[in-house]
Amino acid sequence: xxxxxFFTIALAALLAVPGVLFAQSAPATAKPAAISVTIVYHxxxxxxxxxxxxxxxxxxxxxxxxxxxxxxxxxxxxxDVAELRLNHTSTIIKVxxxxxxxxxxxxxxxxxxxLFALTVGKxxxxxxxxxxxxxxxxxxxxxxxxxxxxxxxxxSADGTTTKVSTLEGTGWxxxxxxxxxxxPDDGKLYRLAADTTGAGFxxxxxxxxxxxxxxxxxxxxxxxxxKALTDEMKFTKLDVNEAxxxxxxxxxxxxxxxxxxxxxxxQATPPAPQTNSTMDNILTALRDILxxxxxxxxxxxxxxxxxxxxxxxxxPTFNIGKLKMSLYLPVIYQxxxxxTSDWYRPAGNDEWSFGRDQVGLENQIVDATRDVLLKIRYxxxxxxxxPFFVKVGNxxxxxxxxxxxxxxxxxxxxxxxxxxxxxxLGVDGQGGxxxxxxxxxxxxxxxxxxxxxxxxxxxxYIRPIPGFRAALGIxxxxxxxPARDFMDPVSGAKGAxxxxxxxxxxxxxxxxxxxxxxxxxxxxxxxxxxxxxxxxQSKPTDVTFSALSSGFQTKAFLDTSAQMPIKNWGSAxxxxxxxxxxxxxYRLQYQLYTGNFIPQMYDSSYERTRGQIVYNTLSYLLNPAxxxxxxxxxxxxxxxxxxxxxxxxxxxxxxxxxxNGTVTADPNNDHFIASFTIQKGVIPVVNIWGTVSYxxxxxxxxxxxxxxxxxxxxxxxxxTATVNYPVSAIMDVTLLYTVVAARDSGGNLIYNGNSLIPxxxxxxxxxxxxxx
Length: 772
Known about the structure:
15-stranded mixed sheet, globular, about 10% helix, mainly beta, 25-stranded antiparallel sheet
């Protein structure tokens, strides 16, 4: 009864929050200053934010309040933000992520022009006083953009085309014709091929012109797209109202009489803007933090059968500079929202019990700790190859080193049926660094016993040559319980004891040679090597493998009597980097491996397929001398992220083997990765956006043997699709599709008959997401 009353009060309080959060007030004013530009605020979320001087020298991460001098360029990375103020006009500018923005010139005391250059990216500018199209312009590679006392967004996503969107007032664009030159210092507007008058094109409020369309006709922006653009480009520190008030006051001053004795104008003086209260600022912050979703979801029962549950999930999200954090507070139920015994329990764990369902103080503390940690969806700071990065929670992209053994490992492929709190951490210093990972930090109680994380790894590296970032590294990845879902399809034996309680140990070495690492071009060469060392803690009870004994299985990698005495190792060499922009990435590598070694063994589907890997490893150990093939493969991967438009990532590994003079293709062990995301606001009118991703081992082999069938979506596949549609400014309807492994109520995989591949279920859910 107490629990029901508590949740009733809590739910009522949370549902009352939106009404409070929409209180509005006007922002504060600022005093004008000398002719200068100030970096008032910035966020270095990517770790690559920098300012370059007029000679191109990298000055590093600026300090808020620094002056941006003529010739200086603001260079932002993914997720970065900068806010600039033209102190002499009160004009303000927001610089978005992945943007190069240069201050070309500033006006003099009596006349002149403020001119900026946008090489690539997106900026919003709210014009203050004396900021007409003749006095304030932004130059891109394809156009000259100006304002007529307005609020506009200028975007050049690829550096070759330009789009201007007017949020308030009137914008202006003059396209640059092919072959023409642009000389900003002569103060003229240019007569261009598409603009025979030389006056450019006006863009009314709520309209946009994209010079990629070549007709230069303003197109009305759909209301939801306009709202999304305004939200995306809203200022954090600077005040739009202040700039607009300065523009209005300046225009009013132009109406005053210029000759003595003339009657004064009755033009009213604009009221002074009000100041935000402390509560206004708090409520504005809460609006950005709180998130809520309701809907349905399909999850397996104790027999692996899918059941439909209702769900109500609060997901507060916090972004503080490079630190990002999201909580996951779910109530997933079938019948009664207020009956906690009816709530879904992932892997049999009552995550809201906080130790009340355990016996003994130690187990109660462990269970309470796990239940608290499970409320973390993710905590992120930085990214790999930064001086420091850390990721905690649901992780889908853990890579150790260059990825020979572990690449894009995922601990949330079957979320929320299986919940983990993973860790990926790294430190990169001048003389070296290290990386750590674990698939689950939250302590578990299995059969009344406390069990540690089963998958852990580390990499240590040094840079032996001062001034050169070449690194030598050693690594080790271990799976302490790969047979937790083991099943022998021949004998039917199940469980870790049947497989001899194996442990997979994979030590490795690597070489990293970064020739160039910059936003424009990156080239890093690498070479990796590793060996798979199986260890059996006990003799297998499965009759199929009863001939094996406990201990290190040395014949797996060393057998002097065999034709190939040293095997079960793998190696890779290749290059990776970026082209033109930081988010246009590439990777190409050659792989050579022997015995039962599997490149990228720890991938997104590993926690589903490791029982199959254990079976194949034990089968190999029965007679490793007969396995003498040289296995090879070429892996290529490319990715492209274009700001707020879309992102695309494709990768493929084509393997083959060489044995006794014969080369044989091996499509059953290829690896295919594809993901595509289209951002909100890209599709006009309907404004649908979303993501689809697909990763599979044995892609071509399955196509050859089964064609386009359901076999492409078995447990060797990780696939998700999300489609979002905005109902209102604060509400979206989301369709979610995913393929999850069938598990019982204890989180154990369910197999179908004598198949090595676990059963899967298709989960389809519809939910309403509320963004307060």
